[in-house]
Amino acid sequence: MVVNKRIAFLFPGQGAQYPQMALDLYQQSTAVQELFALASEAAGIDLKGLLEKASAEELKRTDISQPAISLANLAAASVLREEEIEPIACAGFSLGEYAALATAGVLSYEDCFKLVTVRGRAMQKVADRLAATDAGSAPGMAAVLGLPGEQVEALIAEWKQGGLTDLYAANFNSPKQVVVAGTASALAQAEERFKAAGARRIIRLQVAGPFHSPLVADALEDFAPILEGTTFADPRIPLFSNVTGKQIVSGQEAKKLALRQITEPVRWTSEEAQLVQTGIDMVLEVGPGKVLQGLWKDTGSTIPAFGAGTSLDIQSVLANLSNESEKA
User: Fold this and answer.
1) Which domains does the chain have, with CATH numbers?
2) DSSP symbol at 287
3) CA distances from residue 315 to 25, 79, 306, 319 in whole angstroms, order as listed
4) Residue 328: is its pLDDT beyond 90?
5) 165: which strand partners?
6) Which residues contact 158 (CB under 8 A, 6 or more apart)?
7) Can you say whether the dihedral through the CA atoms of 248, 254, 256, 258 is positive or negative?
8) pLDDT digit string (tens) for 190-203?
9) Are the CB atoms for 238 and 89 separated by under 8 Å?
10) Which member of 70, 78, 174, 212 is catalytic?
11) pTM > 0.85
């Protein structure tokens, strides 16, 4: 198929996972089957068996979800590329940035899976420790809907002065949504306070820890040495950073940002604005779920966004592109 669209691939992160994700792609593609084998060897986990049997609660564990979601993301990208759909730019949300790094040629697939496995285990260890020191209650993240990012940051700073210290702005998702990270007790207190300040809704996320905050800084101890020994090439296509919200210009920069990304906020709204500047005219969410499509629509952009995480999704995308080609 001749594709006349300038397409961006966006890769989802933790919270998008669901039982048996990507198994439909496994059934249809030899390349995806090879990817499953590579990922399973790199992660030291039978990922096909895990995805066949794991419950939603098991997949919530970050040591499991990180290699599993990365595999689902790259499996979907592999099927798209088999159909000659190539991105002109890419970005990934949180963990999804690793699939973007691999798609842009910065990381090999093998190194991508090795890194997310170590990253997941390091972050799970920190999450377990935080839970043990907070009356056994797991730390986590919550989406604050209906308050702008500036107000959320100001409220957190004000409450910190009053003693609510373990709460951080972690993801700037859209003009309508900011995600905060914290201990269980901090999140419980913050929920009522945000509602009193005018938040429309607070939603706890299906993640295992307070990611993108200083609370998980201890994960760097295990992750940094592995990261340092990994080769990062220069991006082959425009690739954007969660940490800066800007384009990554070199492999060296990508490596430095990968370390910072664990404890610093995701500036997704900035990335979306930068992506538009590349001249794209279609966005695909390449991986499980529909979160990034929703966030894209929140920007008010007229550039359409579609899901491309399942076989049915990809068939729909192909039909759409075929219709566009006929019109052209």
Assistant:
1) 7-128+215-327 (3.40.366.10), 134-211 (3.30.70.250)
2) S
3) 12, 10, 11, 6
4) no
5) none
6) none
7) positive
8) 999 999 999 999 99
9) yes
10) 212
11) yes
CA distances from 208 to 70, 227, 288 (A): 16, 22, 18
Q: Would you call 136 exposed, middle or buried from its count of C-beta atoms within 10 A (0-12, 13-18, 19+)?
A: exposed
Given the residues 94, 174, 213, 241, select the one marked as catalytic.
94
Longest dimension (CA), the chain: 62
Active site residue 94: yes
Which structure tokens are listed for 328?
């052209």
As given in the structure block, the two tokens for residue 127 are 């999450």
HEC sequence for 126-174:
HHHHHHHCCCCCCCEEEEEECCCHHHHHHHHHHHHHCCCCCEEEEEEEE
Q: Is 70 a catalytic residue?
A: no
Residue 327 has pLDDT above 70, yes or no: no
The H or E element that residue 181 is part of is: strand 177-182
